[in-house]
């Protein structure tokens, strides 16, 4: 048993509490990790808000982490103690029908357990004050020690700074992959991105890398425009500054609509606007944002009949264990930005401040130091 500090979400909507948590040893095909850094993603705040249909409490949130393997269970061959690793909320078993298909990255091997907040044997490794705590997205990185399935973790080069590459555990990989893998943005194409948080900015980075000629950032927080331009937006607009729907504005200023649009907020009205801003005949809209419980998308079917395509992705469509080390390498070679996403460097004790900064639109990513290497 290992004992360490974790930020525990005892109930929805309540501040997280730093608690001493007992973390059981890894069972077969499990890995216990000492988390060194974790970032805070909008999805952590979403689940804490009580809007996640799969939200379950008490739980240790966090899924954008970097750490060092502390111990491994029987049968683990892909990592060993001392390895630097990134936990993966989208695992890759390599054996299920999803993993075998080149069409998706959604491994199904342990998804049902992950959604129930337990390890693949149906139990938790976390205990606090006599209570069992649930795992979150198969990662639970707001914790000094965590246990994950071996298919949910990948080794990265020791020289990769964990306070930066932890961002590849979710937001940056997601946005970058949404542009490159899901939309497959082409050279000289036109793109628009709703929501200039880390995910939307990473989409912009992907669109720029693909050679898009016009990348329009759309956000109600004009404080995000400067960083939007830095990540490749050729212009940024605030939908509230127009007296007609933003999709109409966009269709007008782009000669009939965009080639690719991306929703990176989790707002179903923005999802509709993003679809309807697409060019007739070929425009593709990618849903990346996660909408709250009970919300549904709608549009006139005519929008699809006339050739627009509506799709979405999780973790940017990356097959996780194959791709994350390559993204790390890209970062180390200077071909992928990570540092500029980090607006705040805090500690695990300051996790509630990090959540507040996110909700107030003041941060892109806060990276929390959980312990020292
Ligand atoms: N599909 C997937 O695999 C993944 C999905 N997600 C989801 O992606 C979304 C974005 O995540 P993240 O970048 O971390 O979130 P952030 O909160 O950092 O960014 C969202 C941005 O959208 C802006 N915004 C809010 N409402 C509107 C609106 N009506 N119109 C235009 N802009 C708006 C926010 O403004 P303000 O600054 O005022 O808040 C903020 O700048 C979330 O829904 C998250 O859950 C995240 C990771 C993976
Ligand atoms: N639990 C929610 C859905 C949440 C969701 O869509 N999560 C994304 C990742 S968001 C990361 O920050 C995801 O990977 N989805 C695919 C999956 O299999 O979960 C709900 O029940 O609506
Ligand atoms: Zn996330
Ligand atoms: Zn699989």
Automatic annotation (TrEMBL):
Residues 28-157 form the Alcohol dehydrogenase-like N-terminal domain. Signal peptide: none annotated. GO terms for cellular component: cytosol. Keywords: Metal-binding, NAD, Oxidoreductase, Zinc. It catalyses: a secondary alcohol + NAD(+) = a ketone + NADH + H(+); S-(hydroxymethyl)glutathione + NAD(+) = S-formylglutathione + NADH + H(+); S-(hydroxymethyl)glutathione + NADP(+) = S-formylglutathione + NADPH + H(+); a primary alcohol + NAD(+) = an aldehyde + NADH + H(+). CDD domains: alcohol_DH_class_III. InterPro entries: ADH-like_C, ADH-like_N, ADH_3, ADH_Zn_CS, GroES-like_sf, NAD(P)-bd_dom_sf. One of its GO terms (molecular function) is zinc ion binding. Its EC number is 1.1.1.284. The keyword Transmembrane helix does not apply. One of its GO terms (biological process) is formaldehyde catabolic process. This is S-(hydroxymethyl)glutathione dehydrogenase.
């Amino acid at each position: 048993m290992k004992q360490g500090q974790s930020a525990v979400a005892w109930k929805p909507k309540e501040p997280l509490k730093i608690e001493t948590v007992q973390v059981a040893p890894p069972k077969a095909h499990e890995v216990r990790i000492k988390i060194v850094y974790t970032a805070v993603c909008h999805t952590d705040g979403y689940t804490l808000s009580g809007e996640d249909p799969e939200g379950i409490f008490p739980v240790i949130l966090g899924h954008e982490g970097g750490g060092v393997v502390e111990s491994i269970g029987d049968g683990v061959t892909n990592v060993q103690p001392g390895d630097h690793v990134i936990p993966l909320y989208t695992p890759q078993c390599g054996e299920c029908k999803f993993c075998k298909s080149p069409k998706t990255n959604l491994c199904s091997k342990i998804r049902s357990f992950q959604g129930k907040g337990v390890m693949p044997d149906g139990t938790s490794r976390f205990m606090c004050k006599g209570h069992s705590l649930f795992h979150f997205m198969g990662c639970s990185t707001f914790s000094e020690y965590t246990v994950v399935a071996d298919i949910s973790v990948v080794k990265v080069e020791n020289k990769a700074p964990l306070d930066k590459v932890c961002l590849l555990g979710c937001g940056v990989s997601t946005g970058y992959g949404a542009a490159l893998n899901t939309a497959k943005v082409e050279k000289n194409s036109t793109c628009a991105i709703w929501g200039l948080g880390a995910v939307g900015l990473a989409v912009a980075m992907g669109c720029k890398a693909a050679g898009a000629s016009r990348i329009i950032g759309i956000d109600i927080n004009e404080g995000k425009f400067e960083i939007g331009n830095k990540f490749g937006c050729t212009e940024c607009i605030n939908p509230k500054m127009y007296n007609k729907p933003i999709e109409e504005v966009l269709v007008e200023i782009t000669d009939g609509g965009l080639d690719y649009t991306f929703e990176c907020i989790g707002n179903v009205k923005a999802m509709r606007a993003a679809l309807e801003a697409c060019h007739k005949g070929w425009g593709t809209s990618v849903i990346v944002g996660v909408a709250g419980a009970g919300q549904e998308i709608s549009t006139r079917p005519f929008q699809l009949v006339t050739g627009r395509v509506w799709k979405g992705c999780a973790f940017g469509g990356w097959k996780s264990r194959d791709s994350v080390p390559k993204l790390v390498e890209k970062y180390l070679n200077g071909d992928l930005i990570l540092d500029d996403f980090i607006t705040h460097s805090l500690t695990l004790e300051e996790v509630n401040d990090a959540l507040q900064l996110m909700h107030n639109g003041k941060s892109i990513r806060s990276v929390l130091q959980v312990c020292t290497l």
